[in-house]
Amino acid sequence: MSSSQKGSSYERQAPNRDFPEHNAPENARERATGWFRDLRNQICAAFETLEDELSGELLESLGTPEAGRFERRKWDREPQADGSSGGGGEMSIMRGRVFEKVGVNISTVMGTFPEDFAKRIPGAEEDPRFWASGISLVAHMRSPLVPAVHMNTRHIITTRSWFGGGGDLNPMFPVEEDTQQFHAAFKKACDAHNPDYYPTFRDWCDEYFFIPHRGEARGVGGIFYDYLNTGNWESDFAFTQDVGKAFLEVYPQLVRKSMQKSWTDEERKHQLFRRGRYAEFNLLYDRGTMFGLKTGGNVEAILMSMPPEAAWP
Question: Looking at the annotation, which residues are catalytic?
Fold first, then answer.
């Protein structure tokens, strides 16, 4: 793919560029929303299975707590000025014995961007109305030996249309084999659609999940993409689905590798410090946090990504 062809498909900064016609089917919004809900259900089921699998000495040392289960709570966005629905979403939160806190949230919202924010969104400066649907996941693990993780995918429509998302691994103690396995899963998903996707989206992830004031990466990367519109909606939707499937396949494997291991007080202390870095990034730099707050989203759902406990030196 040439550089000019790349530019027509995805760019890292694209507030006002022209998008091709996405050629979306009439039921595009329903299909995207349905997929995000289905993916949520699959992930929650897989994570509850991991909760059931914890056993042995570690479970006894924790006091043999019950396996965690997701609690779901729906929320509605404020109606629009014209009386139409603003949409809403559903939070799924679990506090368990493997997952200290994990949220798997879905939402579908619509409305009008504030004037100052509309200037930063493709297609919104000329018409500030929008529709957005997606899934967002953050898992903070009880064990400092099991990596935390983030994943989200979304579909946004203004006068333009595009997909975005990705996933990144945030280990407290990086393990090269785990890093390679995580990246390999996303590379496989990317390569099935375009050989340029993985190197481009990997580098974008490294740039995006960087904490400028600390001069360090938030984790060991993964992929991040936005403004994905190749002119073929079906293809872009299929890729976004494959990103979710890749995450669902690889992350439970990584959890199982280390979830039965015991840890020390020093390892827990280090985990809390790393969580502090995670909180700093999400509150200061994360686009999703800003988008949710600027569009009147549910604050609890937006800040679901915050760890249950963190520390600073």
Answer: 150
Place of tokens 């957005």: 132
Of 156-165, 177-186, 288-297, where does mean pLDDT reach its minimum? 288-297
Q: Which two tokens stand for residue 260?
A: 């039965």
Superfamily covering domain 19-305: Coproporphyrinogen III oxidase, aerobic (3.40.1500.10)
DSSP-assigned letters across all residues of 23-53: ---TTHHHHHHHHHHHHHHHHHHHHHHHHHH
Assign 3-state DSSP to the chain and report helix, strand, coil percentages, each to 5. 40, 25, 35
**Distance set, CA 277 to CA 194, 211, 217 (Å):** 33, 8, 9
The structure tokens 């929303």 sit at 33
Distance, CA of 156 to CA of 80 (rounded, Å): 18
Joined tokens for residue 70: 């997701």
Cα–Cα distances in Å, from 292 out to 52, 173, 305? 33, 31, 12
In DSSP terms, which residues pair with 129 in a beta bridge? Answer: 112
pLDDT tens-digit series, residues 137-152: 999 999 999 999 999 9
Q: Which of 83, 80, 102 is nearest to 91 (CA)?
A: 102
H-only helix segments in the chain: 3-9, 28-53, 56-61, 115-118, 176-191, 197-208, 233-258, 265-284, 287-294, 299-302
- What pLDDT band is residue 306 in, cutting at 50, 70 and 90? very high
Give the helix ranges, DSSP H, for 146-259.
176-191, 197-208, 233-258
With beta carbons less than 8 A apart as the criterion, state whether 201 and 224 touch: yes
pTM value surpassing 0.85: yes
Name the nearest CA neighbour of 54 among 262, 258, 260.
Answer: 260
> What digits encode the pLDDT tens for the residues 58-93?
999 999 999 999 999 999 988 776 666 789 999 999
pLDDT band at 4 (very low <50, low <70, confident <90, very high): very low
For the chain, the domains span 19-305
